[in-house]
Design goal:
Elements: E1 3-9, H1 13-24, E2 31-38, E3 41-48, H2 55-59, E4 65-71, E5 86-87, E6 94-101, H3 104-113, H4 125-137, H5 141-151, E7 154-161, E8 169-174, E9 179-183, E10 186-190, E11 202-205, E12 210-215, E13 218-223, E14 228-229, E15 234-235, H6 251-257, H7 259-266, H8 271-281, E16 285-290, H9 292-309, E17 313-317, E18 332-338, H10 344-355, E19 359-364, H11 370-374, E20 377-380, H12 393-409, H13 417-428, H14 431-441, E21 446-451, H15 455-470, E22 473-478, E23 495-499, H16 506-517, E24 522-527, E25 536-539, H17 547-566
Parallel strand pairs: 16-17, 16-18, 18-19, 19-20, 21-22, 21-23, 23-24, 24-25
Antiparallel strand pairs: 1-4, 1-10, 2-3, 2-4, 5-6, 6-7, 7-8, 8-12, 9-10, 9-11, 11-15, 12-13, 13-14
Bound molecules: 5-amino-5-deoxy-1-O-phosphono-D-mannitol (M6R).
């Protein structure tokens, strides 16, 4: 995964790079590092840990050309040596890389045989050594860069800087995002517009499979076969998120609490929703692709489209799309659901489906993301920037947006955004009850979450939230499946969250709850209906139809948050994870 940023020209590199890194930490936060060039010298500061750990040292660096990196480890442990940037043997080139160089072992062996000495276990370091050699062989840095890229297999977005390049930066991308920002007298490059939006809103999205030499006021770009590219920047608009969590203890909590507004905004009618509904009604087959929480939104969409529009939507786990490709041809539509719009598995599925003739409708949150740009049509879910690694408000915004598309398709009235705002606000009043429950359950090793019909994907989503936020083993189950095995796990005091609203699933799910209670389960009911089945009742407001899954998500998120808090887990950046998963 990882995030990269670079700048050169009329700018203070230390300031641009530290600010940029903070904005890129959602892509990984195992380690951070910076290289700043000052005339003929280059200073590298890097360390395992967060950006905070290097910031005081970086602030002291002088220079206007530099690159920086925030890491999510793929090759090599989380150590200072494996943190980027990686320097060439002569120390005149440094590289930051996002992606995976698949043939790095062969390349490393060849380089070592030629006398290069490696300091890290990463795949990325080969690029620095290869550039060192190539810059000796080619006078034109663009040709050197092309020669290196032609040797690389895998995915990459990388930036290089160093005394060997003067005030130039080298940039290359294949299957990982990289965008250039152009300003008067300065140029920026990053994995994400968001990292440099404070300095410029003129962005040039590097084409997939291309390279560029960036100098203040000049960008030369070419495809990997050497064909020159015309550099055409576009204006980007980007909402800046609060740098801190405001009055809240965590971004995740703030994002949970923002949902009345988010859901109301996502439910506002817009032309893209109508266009998507039209495209889907003309399709021979419809797929909904996503990963993690976005896949759970796809599962909810299956029930919602079936229910309101009588349409069969096939949910597809992005990483398992291979099986479905044979049906993703001309006439079919792929709804590609993603908060970040950068998830590698989703992008891979979309590219494969598109090449076979499927029409892609992206349902994304991050504007200007790869998915938004690559889709034939894009519907933004309007959740606003989501900083916490756990997807919360983006999930309810996805549910709202997908429901609107389904209702439009069926020609049925859309939900009232004001009513939805009120329902979500009411559900948020369960916060003190969720806090109490979090404290009560903090010693539990396992938690089961159970639902039927459209509430089953909510059980899966609740379990994912509990695992990633609280590090408690949690399992989401279809209520009817319990008796086929998992019931054996239920014993005295086993906590079970029963998603049991008063719709047509109510009595069957309640019976399954009774079966668990008879075996000692501690039942936490999420329902708008009173019942003595529940040992603890998280009473949600009475919602109907497509509103229900949105409202149910709230107590599940609050419970996961408070369980994490009670257990002292790191909330906004859970261990081993990253917000945007840009590797396969
Ligand atoms: O950005 P995306 O929606 O494509 O991300 C997909 C998953 O990586 C993401 O939902 C992940 O599962 C979240 N951490 C869940 O909270």
């Amino acid at each position: 995964m990882c995030g990269i940023i670079g700048c050169t020209g009329r700018c203070e590199a230390a300031e641009v790079l530290t600010k940029g890194l903070r904005r890129l930490e959602y892509r990984g936060y195992d380690s951070a590092g910076v290289a700043v060039v000052d005339g003929d010298s280059m200073a590298i500061v890097k360390r395992a840990g967060r950006v905070d750990s290097i910031e005081p040292y970086v602030r002291a660096l002088r220079g206007s050309t530099g690159i920086a990196h925030t890491r999510w480890a793929t090759h090599g442990k989380v150590t200072d040596e494996n943190a980027h940037p990686h320097a060439s043997c002569d120390g005149r080139i440094a590289v930051v890389h996002n992606g995976i160089i698949e043939n790095y072992r062969e390349l490393r062996e060849e380089l070592e045989a030629r006398g290069h000495r490696f300091r890290s276990d990463t795949d990325s370091e080969v690029i620095a050594h290869m550039l060192e050699d190539a810059l000796r062989s080619f006078e034109d840095p663009l040709q050197a860069l092309l020669a290196v890229c032609r040797e690389l297999r895998g995915s990459y977005a990388f930036l290089a800087a160093g005394p060997a390049l003067g005030d130039a930066l080298l940039a290359a991308r294949k299957d990982s995002p990289l965008v250039v920002g152009l300003a008067k007298g300065a140029v920026y490059a990053s994995s994400d517009v968001y990292a440099f939006i404070e300095w410029t809103d003129d962005a040039y999205f590097l084409e997939n499979g291309s390279v560029a030499v960036l100098r203040p006021g000049e960008v030369r770009a070419a495809l990997l076969d050497g064909t020159p590219l015309e550099v055409r920047p576009v204006k980007v608009a980007f909402e800046m998120s609060e740098p801190d969590a405001g009055a809240y203890a965590h971004h995740t909590f703030r994002e949970i609490m923002e949902q009345p507004e988010v859901v109301a905004r996502a439910l506002a009618p817009r032309p893209e929703v109508d266009e998507a509904a039209r495209a889907i009604s003309e399709a021979s087959q419809v797929f909904a692709v996503g990963a993690g929480t976005s896949y759970h939104a796809a599962l909810v969409a299956r029930y919602v489209f079936a229910d309101v529009a009588g349409l069969d939507v096939q949910p597809v786990l992005a990483s398992e799309h291979g099986l479905f490709l044979r049906w993703m041809g001309p006439g079919s539509v792929v709804l590609a659901i993603s908060q970040s719009g950068e998830t590698a598995d989703v992008l891979e599925a979309v590219r494969a489906a598109k090449s076979r003739g499927a029409r892609i409708i992206s349902v994304v949150n991050v504007p200007h993301s790869s998915l938004e740009r690559e889709g034939d049509l894009s519907v933004n879910v309007r959740a606003g920037p989501e900083v916490g690694v756990a997807a919360t408000k983006s999930f309810t915004a996805q549910l709202a947006t997908l429901s609107m598309i389904a209702l439009r398709m069926a020609g049925r009235p859309l939900p009232d955004p004001e009513r939805a705002r009120r329902l979500v606000s009411e559900a948020l009043r369960l916060e003190p009850a969720a806090r109490e429950l979090g404290n009560r359950l903090k010693g539990s090793d396992d938690l089961y979450l159970v639902g039927r019909g459209v509430h089953y994907p909510l059980a899966l989503e609740g379990a994912l939230k509990v695992k990633e936020l609280a590090y408690v083993h949690a399992e989401g189950l279809a209520a009817g499946e319990l008796k086929h095995g998992t019931l054996a796990m239920i014993e005295d005091g086993t906590p079970v969250v029963l998603i049991n609203p008063g719709d047509d699933t109510h009595s069957d799910t309640a019976s399954n709850g009774e079966e668990m209670k008879a075996r000692g389960a501690f039942i936490i009911g999420i329902s708008d209906v009173e019942s003595d089945l529940y040992d603890v009742h998280l009473r949600i407001p009475e919602a109907r139809g497509v509103e229900l899954p949105i409202v149910e998500a709230i107590p599940l998120q609050l419970l996961a948050y408070h369980l994490a808090l009670a257990r002292g887990a790191e909330i906004d950046r859970p261990r081993n994870l990253a917000k945007s998963v840009t590797v396969k």
